[in-house]
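Re: that backbone. Tokens:
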């Protein structure tokens, strides 16, 4: 029956000239692969095309102007590959570039296409996970300095208080495969203790970087009892499923073959082995230029 439905859908597409293409997923480095992993778990039927700008990572220490420029280049690349929907699976890109791309670039560049981020879906879930209204945010220095979570949370929950805390060592620990080492214990405990010392009433902490789920065991070990840890991957995946259901004009352009291709701006021989740590499966990437 599924096979017959696909034949019928393909025939209808040919009659209406609908071009189907993968869903694009972009990150400045590796962390967005945790988002992609959860999206594919929830929506395995679609095709995906991942682009990592690893040659220019990290974005967290870049200026807002450069983050916007680099992110727009990646979006244009994914559009050129046919993608009608692009997910910025990067907190820094979502915080620094998404709004400008949506409001300034898309109306003239590709008014029939969409670019979504990871910050707003995460914030939408916060209200049901706190009793005190005091929210902690762990993120890269760039994400914390942008105050993107502060702005989004305050816009949705006026009485909430947001306490951002940069964790500059967490990404290097993950990318150097030290997430299980003693150094990770030291820095995770240190940052949790510092955040909770700032405000003991915090009862929900957003992991505002897509690398951080690889440290979840240590985060759970050192967090105070009763504090909810909010991971973005499952939230973004569920939000995307809801978005596609509500926007059939976008969904019908998303191809459904269950495939996933990976591209990176750096040496694939370096990218692929570490990428497999994030995805939980073998990765064979190809190199591109943005």
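Recovered sequence:
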């Amino acid at each position: 029956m599924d096979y017959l439905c696909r034949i019928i859908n393909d025939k209808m597409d040919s009659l209406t000239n609908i071009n189907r293409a993968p869903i694009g997923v972009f990150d400045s480095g590796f962390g967005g692969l945790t988002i992609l992993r959860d999206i594919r778990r929830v929506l395995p039927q679609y095709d995906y095309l991942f682009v990592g700008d690893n040659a220019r990572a990290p974005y967290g220490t870049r200026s807002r102007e450069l983050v916007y420029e680099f992110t727009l280049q990646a979006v244009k690349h994914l559009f050129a590959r046919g993608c009608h929907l692009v997910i910025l699976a990067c907190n820094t890109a979502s915080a620094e570039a998404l709004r400008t791309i949506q409001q300034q670039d898309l109306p003239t560049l590709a008014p029939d296409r969409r670019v979504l981020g990871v910050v707003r879906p995460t914030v939408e879930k916060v209200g049901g996970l706190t009793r005190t209204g005091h929210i902690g945010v762990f993120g890269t220095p760039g994400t914390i300095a942008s105050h993107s979570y502060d702005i989004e949370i305050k816009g949705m929950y006026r009485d909430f208080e947001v306490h951002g805390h940069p964790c500059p060592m967490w990404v290097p620990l993950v990318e150097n495969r030290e997430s299980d080492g003693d150094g990770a214990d030291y820095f995770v405990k240190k940052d949790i203790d510092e955040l909770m010392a700032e405000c003991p009433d915090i009862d929900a902490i957003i992991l505002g970087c897509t690398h951080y789920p690889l440290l979840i065991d240590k985060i759970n070990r050192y967090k105070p009892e009763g504090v909810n840890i909010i991971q973005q991957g499952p939230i973004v995946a569920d939000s995307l499923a809801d978005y596609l259901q509500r926007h059939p004009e976008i969904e019908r352009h998303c191809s459904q073959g269950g495939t996933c291709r990976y591209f990176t701006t750096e040496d694939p021989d370096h990218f692929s082995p570490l990428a497999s740590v994030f995805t939980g499966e073998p990765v064979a990437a190809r190199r591109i230029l943005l």
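The two ends are 41 Å apart (CA to CA). Strands lie at 23-27, 48-52, 85-88, 114-116, 134-139, 161-166, 204-207, 228-230, 260-264, 286-287.
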